[in-house]
């Protein structure tokens, strides 16, 4: 019983000492109330493969491009907290002239003359919380909560020596996610922003029609609780 009372007194004493400790972290205003934030991110990439070989892929011939633009606007309704929206549009074109899959000596697949065109679009509601780094007025962290509704349309056309086949797909997407990032001011009004998605819930439904005859549907859901390197965003914003 005496040992129990001694342990209890030690725990109480340690708890009291822990409560007295203060980090003295001061919150400073980085984005003042009433400020407008507008900006955009644009990305473009091309690819071209000529007789490319990799593992089981042989004679890969393809070319295409991907383009994406995403304008954004926010309003700071209180210090360091802003709400607004983001719109996104992307276009992807891929032309495949030929590829051979060599799984083994007796199993080979050839794909020739395939064409794919895809359009993606989305509207995103966002809520931003800024966290200043010390007393700096040039650098800060932010956490962006996103509610996204969007979709895509794509068509894939394949042909061989005797036939032509086409598949039209329409996708509806819904997502909820969080993307932390960092903002660095170049001057008093212009800043560069980098963000990456780390948490998200995604729901998707796809409807396909092949050769105007065959119809298929697919639904999927996913939860992401890790850093997604494919969701890194880089853009420029103006704080007005």
Mean pLDDT: 78
- Provide the gyration radius in Å: 26 Å
Largest sheet: 8 strands, antiparallel, barrel
Order of helices and strands: HEEEEEEEEEEE
Stretches with pLDDT under 50, minimum 5 residues: none
What is the count of β-strands? 11
Q: What's the total helix number? A: 1
| N-end to C-end Cα span | 67 Å
Tell me the strand order in the biggest sheet.
Answer: 1-2-3-5-6-7-8-11
Percent range of helical residues:
under 10%
Shape: elongated
Any overview of this molecule?
This protein is mainly beta and 240 residues long. The protein has 1 helix and 11 strands. The chain has an 8-stranded antiparallel β-barrel with strand order 1-2-3-5-6-7-8-11. A hairpin with a 2-residue loop joins strand 1 and strand 2 (57-78). The longest helix is centred in the N-terminal third of the chain and has 19 residues, at 2-20.
Q: Secondary structure elements and their pairing?
A:
Elements: H1 2-20, E1 36-54, E2 57-78, E3 81-102, E4 108-111, E5 114-132, E6 139-159, E7 164-185, E8 190-197, E9 199-210, E10 214-224, E11 228-239
Antiparallel strand pairs: 1-2, 1-11, 2-3, 3-4, 3-5, 5-6, 6-7, 7-8, 7-9, 8-11, 9-10
Question: Key features?
Answer:
single chain, 240 residues, elongated, mainly beta, eight-stranded antiparallel barrel
Write a short abstract of this structure:
The chain is mostly beta strands.
